[in-house]
């Protein structure tokens, strides 16, 4: 049948910014999906403990007033999300996130910020896996396609509906459906087991990072460094 016909866990964060080591969680969603259909979901609204910038509010629609008035403490939200995700990984169920490196690095930074056990600690020293990232896969299998690679654009490319972009639940569901659509188009992706696909994505992401770093340096950014770690970037002690 292939991994894309089995249970997948869509995951998405909406946040205060674009730097995963500095931004804070505002909303989060984890959705169980099988055959493209949602089976159940968990959603969180956090009080991030910092002001949500106006440009971030414009993206996801969560105001400071709502976050502080209705949101749970940030440490409780990060802890709950980590527990849910690691629960799936412990049973071998893939977690699907579009641009997973951003979401998982940000979650890891939040855990460290609040003095909570890391994902690896919750997994007994193992790395979080398997992770399926349609962004990384699409960039590898259709490397030279022109145009944007954001979630909306790639969903359009593969005929996946995205009803409310930048809503955590909608994006999480779309990511899971997109993973399935890519697998349907590319049998070589569908034919890999989830664990092997995870390993391949580590390689693909590192290759992309090296290529992009080289591009930046050729354009004059002599000191440019693009971290090739996937699916979680190492989070420093200062976050």
Features:
alpha/beta, 239 residues, 6 strands, six-stranded mixed sheet, Nucleotidyltransferase, domain 5
Structure commentary:
With 239 residues, the chain is α/β, with parallel strands linked by helices. The chain has a single domain, classed as 2-Layer Sandwich (Nucleotidyltransferase, domain 5). Helices cover 47% and strands 15% of the residues. It contains 10 helices and 6 strands, in the order βββααβαβααβααααα. Strands 4-3-2-1-5-6 form a 6-stranded mixed beta sheet, with helices on both faces. It is globular and about 45 Å long. The protein starts with 7 loop residues before the first strand and ends in a 21-residue tail after the last helix.
What is the H-and-E element order? EEEHHEHEHHEHHHHH
CATH architecture: 2-Layer Sandwich
Structural class: alpha/beta
CATH class: Alpha Beta
Brief rundown of the structure:
The protein is of the alpha/beta class.
Write the layout of secondary structure elements.
Blueprint: E1 8-15, E2 25-34, E3 37-47, H1 54-60, H2 64-70, E4 72-73, H3 74-90, E5 95-96, H4 100-113, H5 119-122, E6 131-132, H6 134-141, H7 151-158, H8 168-185, H9 187-190, H10 194-218
Parallel strand pairs: 1-5, 3-4, 5-6
Antiparallel strand pairs: 1-2, 2-3
Helix pairs in contact: 6-10, 7-8
């Amino acid at each position: 049948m292939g991994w894309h016909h089995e249970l997948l866990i869509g995951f998405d964060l909406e946040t205060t910014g674009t730097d995963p080591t500095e931004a804070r969680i505002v909303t989060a969603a984890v959705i169980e999906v099988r055959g493209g259909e949602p089976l159940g979901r968990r959603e969180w609204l956090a009080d991030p403990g910092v002001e949500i910038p106006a440009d971030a509010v414009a993206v996801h629609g969560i105001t400071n007033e709502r976050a502080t008035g209705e949101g749970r403490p940030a440490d409780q939200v990060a802890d709950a999300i980590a527990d849910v995700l690691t629960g799936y990984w412990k049973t071998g169920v893939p977690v699907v996130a579009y641009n997973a490196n951003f979401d998982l690095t940000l979650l890891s930074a939040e855990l460290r910020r609040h003095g909570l056990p890391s994902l690896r600690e919750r997994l007994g020293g193992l790395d979080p896996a398997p992770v399926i990232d349609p962004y990384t896969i699409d960039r590898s299998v259709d490397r030279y396609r022109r145009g944007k690679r954001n979630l909306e654009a790639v969903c359009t490319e593969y005929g996946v509906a995205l009803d409310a972009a930048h809503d955590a639940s909608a994006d999480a569901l779309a990511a899971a459906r997109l993973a399935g659509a890519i697998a349907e188009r590319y049998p070589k992706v569908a034919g890999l087991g989830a664990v092997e696909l995870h390993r391949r994505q580590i390689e693909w992401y590192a290759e992309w990072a090296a290529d992009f770093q080289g591009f930046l340096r050729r354009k004059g950014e002599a000191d440019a460094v693009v971290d090739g770690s996937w699916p979680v970037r190492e989070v420093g002690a200062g976050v």
